């Protein structure tokens, strides 16, 4: 079973929050709550791509820098980025200066535009891969799932990069496609309620 840790109010939270104080507000107000906004969904896919091989703490600490550097992750703007923009971003000490990842998210912006043209919204496409509840019987017991493998495969077929099944599963956890809060975590019931009230795109 996943561990629990007391939050600032004394109620139990997922154990991973205890590693770093700024994790608590992220955990309590973002992680696992369902999102249908295309820009936020695209941002999280980008940030999870940058996290590959790194810790989420590193990315969370730099999130505002990433937002400033990538025009708020507006994929319509990012799709117009040029090689000069790549060079500019490689000089930005406030983000992860990895050429492959920078070029990947710029590529993915154009691919996101294609999905919007084909499906009406990025949210509609991504939420079509919402896992059935029985796919993850024990919270935080998996790092991939059949649904994350399927979505990863589809994204790669459409030309996306740095979207492996582990990256995609972390995206699903954080954007509310699955409630992976630990049993006993005070936020788990709040996420359950938000998911029950959420209108799927």
TrEMBL record:
Q: Which Pfam families match?
A: Adenine_glyco
What GO biological process terms are annotated to this protein in UniProt? Answer: base-excision repair
User: What keywords appear on the UniProt entry?
Assistant: Metal-binding, Zinc
Cross-referenced SUPFAM superfamilies? DNA-glycosylase (SSF48150)
Q: Where, by residue number, does Zn(2+) bind?
A: 14, 27, 181, 185
Origin superkingdom = Bacteria
Q: Which GO terms describe its molecular function?
A: DNA-3-methyladenine glycosylase activity; metal ion binding
Q: Does the keyword Metal-binding apply?
A: yes
Cleaved signal peptide residues: none
Q: Which PANTHER family match?
A: DNA-3-METHYLADENINE GLYCOSYLASE 1 (PTHR30037), DNA-3-METHYLADENINE GLYCOSYLASE I (PTHR30037:SF4)
Q: What is the protein name given in its UniProt record?
A: DNA-3-methyladenine glycosylase I
Instruction: Give the species this sequence originates from.
Output: Marimonas arenosa
The taxonomic lineage of its organism, from the top, reads:
Bacteria, Pseudomonadati, Pseudomonadota, Alphaproteobacteria, Rhodobacterales
